[in-house]
Design brief:
The protein is mainly alpha-helical and 411 residues long. It has one domain. 73% of the residues lie in helices and 0% in strands. Helix 1 runs parallel beside helix 7. The radius of gyration is 21 Å and the shape is globular.
């Protein structure tokens, strides 16, 4: 598979005109030429992403190329039997559909891949099955959530627009993982639209389209990575309460999260089926069964409060500090380590310059609680350095952009 240059360029130009024309992008506060430039950068990185995983050592295990291969017969199904194409998305290959949180032999686990494959198949119709031209279509979808998230952060921002755009669009790990054809870019786009729609709803600026967008995108997040959607519940409640009160925003989030933890502990007494720790440890065990070159040596973890408490330092280390300096094996690891240093620097500057100087907007507090809770959960489940770099990249703009937004760089 090579890049079909002429169709690729024609589609790129076409989507640039579409971006210039769409009112949602026009009203974003981002200059059209700048937004188109960011879009072209993401498309270029998406092509590099595909070329990187096409190398002989990676292509057989690369999900993005597996999605492409499995989308080819789906494209033929779409062209000749469109109703069957739709029906197969809801059909199970198992006698039972399986549990929502089971990692294998489950319809729900397969669904997250099948959605991407179906989207791939639709794009194939227009691109004549060209993988690289498909990156344009996918990055166009990614752009909506990125712009929606930028609009929310920008409302309360005190920093320069370019720094804000860099923290959202161009964070190195997120730029790479969020530009290729995979779940990450779609997930962030859906989250961005969910955040934006919920904000309009609690501000009573709601229209029917915001409810529809919230329902569709939240459902998408749930089917692709269900724990993200579940983690949004306490974060949304805290955000809603904080918006209704003009002080002590942190108090409402602390109260909601404390109440949710207490509720989970009480429900867990009903048995393993209701124990959230059981599902977390099960995911952790699934990672331990995988083979890879970046395995992290971790202590045992069991679904008990004592075991989870003992594992906390390891979870923090995995989520926020991997790879370590002595673990650098290649340029990719070096870039990941450099990004950790950059994020640490931003965090220190944020804490130094904003302490006791300004009440943090509820949306920013929401981003911190949601992003940090997801990273901590990833720290408990993921046992590979390469995997945690990818999982962490999804939350970095959600955490770093509000930090930069609170730092008064304009002065």
């Amino acid at each position: 598979m090579t890049i079909d240059i002429l169709p690729f360029l024609l589609y790129l130009i076409l989507f640039c005109f579409i971006i210039y024309w769409i009112p949602f992008f026009k009203k974003s506060g981002i200059a059209w030429w700048l937004l188109i430039g960011l879009f072209c950068i993401k498309v270029g990185v998406g092509v590099v992403y595909g070329l990187y995983f096409k190398t002989p050592a990676l292509i057989d295990k690369a999900d993005t190329w597996r999605f492409y291969r499995e989308s080819l017969p789906e494209t033929q199904l779409l062209l000749h039997h469109p109703l069957t194409f739709i029906k197969t998305l809801f059909a199970s290959n198992y006698a039972e559909r399986g549990g929502l949180f089971v990692g294998k032999n489950s319809y729900w686990n397969d669904l997250k891949d099948n959605i991407i494959i179906k989207l791939f198949a639709v794009c194939n119709v227009f691109t004549r099955n060209n993988y690289y031209s498909n990156t344009i279509f996918f990055n166009f979808l990614y752009l909506f959530g990125l712009v929606a998230f930028y609009k929310l952060v920008q409302i309360h921002s005190r920093t320069h627009q370019y720094l804000l755009l860099i923290s959202i669009f161009l964070m190195p790990s997120f730029l790479f993982w969020g530009s290729g054809i995979h779940k990450d870019g779609l997930l962030f786009s859906a989250l961005g639209i969910v955040f934006y729609s919920f904000y309009r709803i609690i501000k009573k600026e709601v229209k029917a389209k915001h409810w529809v967008a919230l329902f569709i995108c939240l459902s998408f997040v749930f089917f692709i990575r269900n724990y993200l959607a579940l983690a949004l519940l306490p974060a949304f409640i805290g955000w809603w309460l904080a918006e209704k009160n003009h002080q002590r925003h942190q108090f409402y989030f602390l109260a909601v999260y404390s109440g949710c933890l207490l509720l989970l502990m009480i429900v867990a007494l009903l048995g393993d089926h209701y124990n959230a720790l059981y599902y977390m440890v099960n995911k952790h065990q699934e990672f331990l069964l995988l083979n890879g070159n970046s395995t992290i040596a971790v202590p045992p973890l069991s679904p008990s409060t004592e075991s989870v408490a003992k594992y906390l330092p390891t979870a923090i280390d995995v989520a926020f500090l991997r790879p370590h300096l002595f673990e650098i094996k290649n340029p990719a690891y070096a870039m990941a380590f450099a990004e950790i240093l950059l994020n640490t620097t931003i965090t220190i500057v944020f804490l130094w310059l904003t302490k006791n100087k300004r009440l943090m907007p509820p949306f920013y507090v929401f981003c911190f609680y949601f992003g940090l809770s997801i990273l901590l959960l990833d720290g408990y489940t993921v046992t590979f350095t390469g995997a945690i770099v990818r999982y962490r990249s999804l939350m970095l703009p959600i955490i770093i952009a509000p930090m930069l937004g609170m730092i008064p760089f304009k002065r």
